[in-house]
UniProtKB/TrEMBL annotation:
Protein name: Acid phosphatase/vanadium-dependent haloperoxidase related protein
Species assigned in the record: Ethanoligenens harbinense (strain DSM 18485 / JCM 12961 / CGMCC 1.5033 / YUAN-3)
Pfam families: DUF212
Keyword check for DNA-binding: no
Record-annotated membrane-spanning stretches: 12-34, 43-63, 75-92, 129-147
Key words of the record: Membrane, Oxidoreductase, Peroxidase, Transmembrane, Transmembrane helix
GO terms assigned for molecular function: peroxidase activity
């Protein structure tokens, strides 16, 4: 039970986790407003506005900065982790989503020409636009500052 207490009283961890939760809630609400339907995949899914990954690592980064200082090894780790995650969200995962879009279109064209393709469509919303990442960064910073 003591471990659970430490978990919930860890400012850095809670800032990161709450940033992710808030981002997923915001993402779900935005999808609900735009599409006029509830999409449960948005609650845990990747991609969309704001970037939950960016929010989480930026809250972690700010939390570590505030608790440990810029000269600490913890800060260096948080800084590098944030950079890698943000780069991945905008670069690698976004490119994978664009490739999925192209492959899904090819499957659609192939099926229209009479060939049967027995695979489910690939998930296209994997990465983030720069604006989605920026929104996630700002959310993570705000949550960490508001909590600390």
């Amino acid at each position: 039970m003591l471990v659970l207490s430490h978990f919930f009283h860890n400012y850095i961890l809670m800032a990161a986790v709450l940033s992710w939760i808030f981002a997923q809630i915001i993402k779900t609400v935005i999808t609900l407003i735009i599409t006029k339907r509830f999409d449960p995949e948005r609650i845990l899914g990747a991609g969309g506005m704001p970037s939950a990954h960016s929010a989480m690592v930026c809250a972690l980064f700010v939390g570590v900065l505030r608790r440990c200082g810029a000269a600490s090894p913890e800060f260096a780790l948080a800084f590098v982790l944030a950079g890698v995650v943000i780069y991945d969200a905008m670069g690698v995962r976004r490119a994978a989503g664009e490739q999925a879009r192209v492959l899904n279109k090819l499957v659609e064209i192939t099926e229209k020409n009479g060939s049967e393709v027995t695979r489910k469509g690939l998930k296209e919303s994997l990465g983030h636009t720069p604006m989605e990442v920026l929104a996630g960064i700002m959310l993570g910073i705000l949550v960490a500052l508001a909590m600390g």
